[in-house]
Amino acid sequence: MLTSESLLFLKQTRKNIIGLMICIVLFFSGFFIHGNSGLYINLSGFLIVIGGTLGATFLSYNMKRIEILFKVLKTSYGKQTRRPVEVVQMLVDLSIRRRIKGVLSLQEDEDKTDVAFLKQAIGLLVDGCSKEQIKDSLSAEMYFFRMRRDETRRLLQTMADVAPSFGLVGSVVGLIGMLSGAGNSAVVMATIPIALTSTLYGIVLANFIFLPFAATIRERTVKELFLQKLISDGILAIYDELHPRMLERKLKAFLTPSEREGLVVSFESIQEKIELAEIHESAKA
């Protein structure tokens, strides 16, 4: 059964797909509106641009990095990040649980959470690491996470940079063929499309495919780093045994005004939930 968050994600994704399809139709309508759409299709020019772009990419990056790119894109378009307000509620819940049942009780949450960074942070807390050790470990994780994502984004940026250049290469190839066939109208007509469409393909691939993908990865990275910073500050506050109400006020600074409305985590409701869980466990025993 889908949760409300999953339904919201699917709804937003559907809107994005509908908007993208409308834009694609509008974009290609400009090519086909005057008829004779075959003028814009040239296999030779396309192969020059694609082959050159992929070749330059393979020379610049190893296959492992390219595989990571596909995984990151799949995650960026297929998996929703947690909303900051949800993470705040989770951290306040952890704070109350620690005050009631102790730090070792947080191991249950470590096993249940689906947020990898939060799972790691809880593990450091449960293992009895010092505050400096927790802070250094989480900071290092954030730093290298950003480095890995930046490297993946630079791969797409490299492809966007070289694609128009290989479009020019295709244009030069077409011009050479045209000049070699000077006086032969059949050769000239066969090579002119290569010269013109190659540049078109390079520009379209760079600005309609590679750069938007790079922007998506950058946006996703910013969101995840924001959540990691939120979790890091929350876990350190829990280590200092900051009162749950004060923790809630502290973490609200990460939220937009609209997200803060209604975010009142009830101490009594969470305590009641924990007590019910204890009764349920004792009943099983």
Strand and helix map with partners:
Elements: H1 4-32, H2 43-60, H3 63-78, H4 84-101, H5 107-112, H6 116-126, H7 131-180, H8 185-239, H9 244-252, H10 257-260, H11 267-284
Helix pairs in contact: 2-7, 2-8, 3-7, 3-8, 4-8, 4-9, 4-11, 6-7, 6-8, 7-8, 8-9
Q: List the domain count as a whole number.
A: 1
Q: Helix share of residues?
A: over 70%
* Tertiary shape: elongated
Briefly note the structural class of the backbone.
mainly alpha
User: How confident is the prediction overall: mean pLDDT?
Assistant: 81
Describe the structure.
Helix content is 82%, strand content 0%. It is mainly alpha-helical and 285 residues long. It has one domain. Helix 2 runs antiparallel to helix 7 and helix 4 runs antiparallel to helix 9 (244-252). The longest helix is centred in the last third of the chain and has 55 residues, at 185-239. It is elongated and about 95 Å long. The chain starts with a helix and ends with a helix. The mean pLDDT is 81.
Write a short abstract of this structure.
With 285 residues, the protein is mostly helical.
Properties at a glance:
285 residues, mainly alpha, 82% helix
